[in-house]
Amino acid sequence: MTSFLTQLILIGGLTSAGVYLLLERSLIRMLLGILLISNAVNLLIITASGPSGNPPVRDHISNSSENNADPLAQAMILTAIVITMGVAAFVLALAYRSYRLTTVEEVSDDPEDTRVSRLTGEEAAALDRDKPRFDPKRDTDEPDELDALPGAEGSR
């Protein structure tokens, strides 16, 4: 009983630290938060899978136990580790690209989102009604004001 309680306290601590880091503005801290939460979930799956037992291979006995270990939990954790590493690589690529574009590693508030969130219901409806619709004939590959590349205005 004490070992399960210790594991559950460790899982809770990892999860809470991961959520705290995930709510930060720095992309690297967000990545560390995702990694901590995924490790906590992996530990939870191992804890919930039950006691250890014989390997899930026919005619193999390791500790003279009467029950076999559940192979599903091990397969789920291996899959979760691979997915977590893929997400970590993606977040690292986003952080690198963000740093190269803005030389800042923190996620900042978007001023346009802040302005739109302060609109009243009637102003938002009027803004949506007056918004120009997408015209595929007008879209070109030429740089315009919506491009995210710095210095695109001077290259025309």
Folded structure, characterized:
- It contains 5 helices and no strands.
- It is mainly α.
- The protein has a domain of 85 residues: Helix Hairpins (Orthogonal Bundle), CATH 1.10.287.3510.
- The longest helix has 32 residues.
- The mean pLDDT is 79.
- It is found in: Cell membrane.
- It holds the Pfam family Oxidored_q2.
- Keywords: Cell membrane, Membrane, Transmembrane, Transmembrane helix.
- Belongs to the CPA3 antiporters (TC 2.A.63) subunit C family.
- It is a multi-pass membrane protein.
What is the structure about, briefly put?
It contains five helices and no strands. By secondary structure, it is an all-alpha fold.
What order do the SSEs take from the amino end to the carboxyl end, as H and E?
Answer: HHHHH
**What helical percentage do the residues reach?**
55-70%
Low-confidence stretches: none
Helical stretch tally = 5
Rg over CA atoms, rounded to whole Å, is 25 Å
Assembly of the depicted chains? single chain
Task: Give the beta-strand count.
Answer: 0
Instruction: Find the structural class using helix and strand composition.
Output: mainly alpha
Topology:
Layout: H1 2-22, H2 27-48, H3 71-102, H4 111-117, H5 121-130
Helix pairs in contact: 1-2, 2-3
